[in-house]
């Protein structure tokens, strides 16, 4: 008899015969039953209206369209416990690192990737090593150094700098950048760049009510006073406290050694998912891709443009350089669907595979050509990334996708159905589908597209 690790009350005995274990359907059924029982507890369960707080490392900074930490923790914990063989998790769209943090809390190995240097910075900050006592002293040194700096030399040079920042903000941000550059401890410097990124967001002339770059009104800017140094100090202290609490929890769970290093393996890479996926063979994929091209959904690149101008990119990743900041749209252009050239032609081979994509594109034929181009470009690029992802998973590995169905030109684009069909063509089976409404969508309300994405769908797949 073999032990089968299963959530409490999932409907299966703890001990199953080898015959039952050999059947992957037994595991599938156990996952389905457990997730169904959660839904039965409360019709509103999956909205996570309550209990969605971003505690400790989850709350370091703002980032567009962040996943709900308790939801990802529940999904990751349920599938990994029932499946019983999860040691390494892959997230090809790492974002701000929600999945990363939950993997660390479970003591799992993690491999993540993102095309946005700011996302990579946030993930590497959250991965440690958690030398938080040193960090606390370094924060004080940096603040003191910047406060005593009397130089007015500007440390950033990009088009429109005087449009996006007041003269006093430019001076103080430059002093902070000089002070952070002198920090010799790599992780502490990453943490400080993270704090500076949030400082830039809050003290620039761009509105914080949208993820797109929009200047504040002239009256607003005339009456507004910002103090980057004071703002940075407050943010850095809070970030340090959050990381310290995260480190304590991880040490108590036995996942972090006394010297602050995580006991598992963490790989975080800057790159395009269609071209490269973190090396190795993984046991589970947990991710949430963009819900469409960034230009018309969530402009991650625009959001990141100003903060990245003040950060030393080589500190983030050896492949990060100024080419990422050629324009305010460069990162978004490198993302899924960023280039629409020949997109409609390029997806023709997918139409017999995905009737849902075929139907969506036909509905868009009567609209301006850019509508169909947006949809086709996104699915051309996402489809190209599916093979590298599935190849990086072991046989019978599960996948947990959180996706959003959008509308383009008033026409529905069923992301969940299209993805399911493209996965089926690769021999990947749909195990469970969960619909969830979004009570206060992080990105829709901030990007004026609340009418295009009203909910999300959780899709649990298994690689055959």
Overview of the structural elements:
The structure is a single chain. With 464 residues, the protein is α/β, with parallel strands linked by helices. The chain has a domain at 1-40. Helices cover 45% and strands 13% of the residues. It contains 18 helices and eleven strands. A hairpin with a 2-residue loop joins strand 8 and strand 9 (411-413). Helix 5 (117-126) crosses helix 9 and helix 9 packs across helix 12. The chain is globular and about 65 Å long. The chain starts with a strand and ends with a strand. Residues 1-22 and 441-451 have low confidence and may be disordered.
Helices and strands, with pairings:
Blueprint: E1 2-3, E2 15-16, H1 18-22, H2 24-41, H3 69-83, E3 88-91, H4 98-106, E4 109-114, H5 117-126, H6 132-148, H7 161-164, H8 167-181, H9 186-203, H10 218-223, H11 228-252, E5 266-270, E6 282-287, H12 300-309, H13 313-316, H14 330-334, H15 343-346, H16 355-363, H17 369-391, E7 393-404, E8 406-408, E9 411-413, H18 415-424, E10 428-437, E11 455-463
Strand order of the largest sheet: 5-4-3-6-7-11-10
Please give the largest β-sheet. 7 strands, mixed
Number of strands: 11
Number of helices: 18
Q: Secondary-structure element sequence?
A: EEHHHEHEHHHHHHHEEHHHHHHEEEHEE
Tell me briefly what this model is.
This protein is 45% helix and 13% strand. The protein has 464 residues and is of the alpha/beta class.
């Amino acid at each position: 008899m073999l032990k089968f690790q299963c959530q409490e009350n999932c409907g299966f005995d703890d001990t199953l015969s080898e015959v039952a274990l050999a059947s992957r359907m037994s595991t599938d059924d156990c996952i389905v039953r457990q997730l169904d029982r959660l839904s039965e507890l409360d019709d509103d369960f999956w909205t996570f209206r309550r209990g969605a707080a971003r505690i400790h490392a989850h709350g370091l900074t703002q980032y567009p369209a962040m996943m709900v930490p308790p939801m990802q923790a529940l999904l990751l914990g349920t599938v990994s416990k029932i499946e019983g063989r999860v040691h390494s998790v892959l997230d090809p769209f790492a974002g701000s690192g929600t999945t990363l943090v939950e993997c660390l809390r479970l003591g799992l190995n993690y491999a993540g990737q993102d095309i946005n240097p700011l996302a990579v910075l946030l993930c590497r900050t959250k991965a440690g090593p958690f030398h938080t006592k040193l960090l606390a002293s370094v924060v004080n040194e940096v603040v003191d150094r910047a406060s005593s700096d009397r130089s007015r030399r500007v440390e950033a040079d990009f088009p429109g700098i005087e449009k996006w920042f007041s003269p006093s903000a430019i001076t103080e941000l430059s002093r902070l950048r000089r002070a952070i550059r002198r920090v010799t401890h790599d992780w502490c410097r990453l943490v400080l760049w993270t704090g500076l990124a949030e400082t830039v967001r809050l003290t620039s002339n761009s509105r914080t009510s949208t993820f797109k770059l929009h200047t504040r009104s002239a009256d607003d800017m005339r009456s507004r006073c910002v103090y980057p140094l004071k703002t940075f100090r407050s943010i850095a202290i809070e970030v340090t406290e959050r990381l310290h609490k995260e480190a304590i929890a991880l040490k108590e769970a036995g996942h972090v050694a006394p010297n602050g290093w995580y006991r598992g393996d963490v790989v975080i890479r800057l790159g395009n998912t269609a071209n490269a996926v973190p090396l190795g063979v993984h046991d589970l994929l947990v991710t949430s891709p963009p819900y469409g091209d960034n230009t018309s959904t969530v402009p991650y690149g625009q959001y990141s443009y100003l903060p990245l101008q003040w950060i030393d990119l080589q500190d983030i990743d050896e492949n990060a350089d100024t080419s990422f900041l050629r324009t305010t749209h460069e990162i978004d252009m490198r993302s899924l669907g960023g280039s629409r050239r020949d997109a409609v032609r390029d997806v023709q081979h997918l139409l017999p595979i995905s009737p849902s994509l075929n139907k969506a594109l036909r509905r868009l034929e009567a609209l301006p050509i850019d509508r169909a181009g947006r949809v086709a470009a996104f699915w051309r690029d996402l489809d190209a990334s599916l093979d590298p992802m599935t190849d990086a998973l072991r046989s019978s590995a599960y996948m947990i996708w959180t996706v959003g169905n959008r509308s383009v030109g008033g026409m529905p684009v069923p992301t969940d159905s299209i993805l399911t069909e493209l996965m089926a063509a690769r021999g990947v089976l749909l195990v469970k589908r969960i619909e969830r409404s979004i009570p206060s969508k992080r990105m829709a309300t901030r990007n004026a597209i609340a009418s295009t994405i009203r909910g999300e769908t959780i899709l649990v797949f298994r690689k055959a």
